[in-house]
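User: Before I run my own analysis I want an independent prediction to cross-check against. Here's the chain; please return only the structure tokens and, at the end, one sentence I can use as a sanity check.
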Amino acid sequence: MEPVKVGLLGLGTVGGGTVNVLKRNAGEIARRAGRGVVISHAATRDLDKERICDTSGITLTTDPFAVVNDAEVQIVVELIGGDGLARELVLAAIDNGKHVVTANKALIAKHGNEIFERAQAKGVMVAFEAAVAGGIPVIKAVREGLAANRVEWLAGIINGTGNFILTEMRDAAQGSASAAGGGTPGAAKGRDFAEVLAEAQALGYAEADPTFDVEGIDAAHKLTILASIAFGIPLQFEACFTEGISNITREDVHYAEELGYRIKHLGVARRTEAGVELRVHPTLIPERRLIANVDGVMNAVLVKGDAVGPTLYYGAGAGAEPTASAVVADLVDVTRTLTADPENRVPHLAFQPDALSDLPILPMAEIETAYYLRLQAIDRPGVLADVTRILGDSGISIEAILQKEPVGDSEATVIILTHRVQEAKMDYAIGAIEALDSIDGEIMRIRLETLDAD
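Assistant: Structure tokens:
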């Protein structure tokens, strides 16, 4: 049988990795797919640029539409990023009756509903395993491996840059490089956000403009996709709450560790009777949880199903070959189904298109979680009593209080952990506490999740 011919849009890091993996493992891939899979055409902005892959045998062009419109190409792989030109190219490929594989999380999160509807009408597949968590096959796991389950919630470290920064900000020394991917043996940690961000940029983990990574936008794209697959709802990126890590201090990281927690930039999606929680924000997690010990640039997603219980998916969330691993896996899946009945393929969002739920995304004010609060208080009698009174009047129960003695005439630092409470009540309480003349500045608020199995 003739090999399947693939048109590649983008020959950068992931595109080059895809070419390398396909060529190196050609025999294994053909055995799995039932026929060969080859890159026949590729579009790139610079034909003369030095590459990480061998492009011999590939027809190169600077016009991506030439690839999309080529009659020989059966599958289009979109790796150019963004959601403008990429959207045009993907829709054109679908209109031409070609299957699509993409690693573009922004494209799927923002335009996936339109793309999947068009693909369904044309009887073609759109595969996007590489769009979430790089080489971790979490989309396939949730969509197919957990198909027997009612997914109750999921929580993920799904941005390696943010995880690297928070790992490096930790106060404790790392005795040895852990299997979870972080730390230099014997290296003392405990640095400020700005210093670690500069290092992440120097290492190539963060872009010159790191906004998408550190403010949670990248993670929100990925969480939107995961939530849609887990709960069978339309993609609703615009409804996802996002909060970044730029205000986290090394003191917060240290105090969290004193209390038995780690701070992670977490994406959380939870099904409730009222609707779906969809939120990305810094989160305290008990240090005994496996996901709390995922360090460096690694990713991990914890999924709780009603039948299987909690399951953890861990691995490299980015990089040339880890991401190419997911791209090629999608190519194998598409190749296997080229002759299959379009009506019997695995649905794009796990549930049949006419069976998606209209569960609403809950506003952040209605979401319930526990909290870490750090405040600066004038060291005088009655201040703590005023704070606890306001919390009590707001229906907020305290789990723990940690007070740091002031040095000389400086203010005292007070750390409070609360039990679960609705965010609107916490917003009110924080406003009332900040209004006290004994409290200096704004209160630092970090949400807390225990991620229990029940």
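Sanity check: The chain has three domains: 4-135+320-355, 139-316, 366-448.
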